[in-house]
Amino acid sequence: MKLNQILSILNQIEKSKFITFLDKLCLSAASDDEGISKALNKVNCQIKDASGSEITQLFKAVSLQYKKSVYEKLLLCDASMALLVNILTRDGNCIARISWIEQLYAREWEKLDVLAKKIKLEIDNNFAEDYGHEHRLSIFHNCLNVAYMNDERINRQANITDDERSILNALAHHLKISKDEVVAIEHISEPIKTGKQTVENCLQELRDMGVIFINRKSSEVLIPDEVVSILNQIQGKQLADKHLLRILRVLSDPELSNILKSYGKRTRSVSRSEKINTILHSGIAVRDMLSRDLYDETESQNKRKERLKQLII
Predict the structure, then answer these.
(1) For 293-302, what is each residue's pLDDT tens digit?
(2) Domain of life here (predicted)?
(3) pTM for the full model?
């Protein structure tokens, strides 16, 4: 649902946090941006009295500043927030009852916990340094622990900084560790909180950030399409899930298996739909899939180019 549509069905109290946040962004950015200044002048600098379409235009004008501000705020949050944001930005979850979001969070946490225990067992039982998947998981786990211990050494709360995060992301990319495995390894080092109260606290924080709207009458959470797009960019998603799903559906079974094998995931006795769902929810970058993961190692560059042309057509 578009921002303008959401604004039209909510009352002033339910819109207040978003409008307050947008007002601060516009006022701070207006002096340096003529476009924002003009948009503000159209509503006489009174955003609270502006129409839904005027607020939408102001949001578009400060979208870059909005993205930067939300990104900085999310960096200060714990991993439970990242898990919830990942759930909220999936297709079909942009408008959902709070009780349903709580159920989704509980299910996601359970899956994550199972994966974390499996990875920990693999790391603990791996003594070979053959650069296999278990060895690569162990390397990433050690590096992540170092990132945490850097803070503990100087008596600060363990946290991964933006610089450390970018380094770990690059490391995960080259080690072929999927995003779900990255989160699971973080869960080993710093367990993610669970429970209804955790979800409620995160939802309230997101509302205060101007990311979501909460309709108290219907107990629903609403996220505009425009905000979902920005959150996807912050998360590093190169394509929305619905577009990625279309690509996966045209790949052959052997190609889907190649992608899964690249990340050490099971392929035997796995149905086609299971393969697609596993890839979709593993957070594997579509650029990596199309450039390296779906091909056999022996395939030449020309064959890879030809396959890409077929997919484009």
Answers:
(1) 999 888 888 9
(2) Bacteria
(3) 0.84
